Amino acid sequence: MVVFDIAGTTVDEGNVVYRTLHKAIEKVCPSVSFEDVLKLGAGKEKLQAIRETLSGSNISLNEATIQEIFKDFLGLLDIAYANLIVVPTNNTERLFNELRTKDIKVVLNTGYNTVTAISLLNKLNWVKGVQYDLLVTSSDVSNNRPMPDMILYAMDKLNITDTSTVIKVGDSTIDIEEGRNAGCKYNIGVTTGAHTKAQLEKANPDYIFDNIYDLVSVL
Predict the structure, then answer these.
(1) Of 82, 108, 129, at which residue does a domain stop?
(2) What is the Cα–Cα distance from 43 to 200, expressed in whole angstroms?
(3) Domain termination residue (choose one: 82, 99, 129)
(4) pLDDT for 144-161, tens place per residue?
(5) d(CA 207, CA 129)
(6) Residues of the domain holding 25
(7) What angle do CA 171, 162, 106 make, to 5 degrees?
(8) Each residue of 43-99: pLDDT tens digit?
(9) 129 and 176, same domain (yes or no)
(10) How far apart (Å, rounded) are the C-alpha atoms in residues 219 and 215?
(11) In terms of domains, do 75 and 45 share one?
(12) Same domain, 53 and 101
């Protein structure tokens, strides 16, 4: 089983979610930059991302204000998604086809909620059982990244019992941490999304690839 993050890893959506998250935060906290959002919030459930971006920027807000930022983010995201054009990252569909031909399960997991994730997949015309085997979102588990719950949930759904047969792939350090916490065989960073190679290296991944298809070299 290979578990792939979605935005920035398998899907190129121009960082619209993080740009929208920044827009919502910036209205209340103009000192927070887009780079701060990527550095502190990438890969995380989005309410968690808001909290950790603020905390990492040494900004303290009351809970009601944080919830208002999150509510504003969701509304702005609906507008942004209405006309959004998304495409798979280079060679992703080729890789998915090769993995499924080898009977290796393809799992998509994300810090987005189910509604947001499905809206992305629908724009790509990706269908469960064709491009991928299972979608797991932050809506499906109690504990989000870097906790291993989404990976363990996928293993349970697909009747996989040995985490040493699982590979995790993502574009942010928290993806690497998630995979390590789950006990995955390999935790792989890709440079197509939120974090740079230098940032990914701080999480000590097993591999860092510039192209997701390079995964086939370690199967």
Answers:
(1) 82
(2) 12
(3) 82
(4) 899 999 999 999 999 999
(5) 28
(6) 16-82
(7) 45
(8) 788 899 999 999 999 999 999 999 999 999 999 988 888 888 889 999 999 999 999
(9) yes
(10) 7
(11) yes
(12) no
Cα-Cα-Cα-Cα dihedral sign, residues 153, 147, 204, 51: positive
Residues 103 and 174 in one domain: yes
Looking at the fold, whether 9 and 59 belong to one and the same domain comes out as no
Model pLDDT, residue 12: 92
Q: What share of the chain is helix, strand, coil (3-state, %, to 5)?
A: 50, 15, 35
Angle at 91 between CA 169 and CA 96, to 5 degrees: 60
- Give the amino acid at 178: E
Same domain, yes or no: 8 and 111: yes
What are the distances in angstroms from CA 142 to CA 19, 64, 111, 175? 26, 22, 12, 17
Class of residue 102 by CB neighbours under 10 A (exposed 0-12, middle 13-18, buried 19+)? exposed
Integer Cα distance of 174 and 186 in angstroms: 14
Which residue has tokens 């509304």?
Answer: 75
Q: What is the pLDDT of residues 1-23, one digit of tens each?
A: 999 999 999 999 888 888 999 99
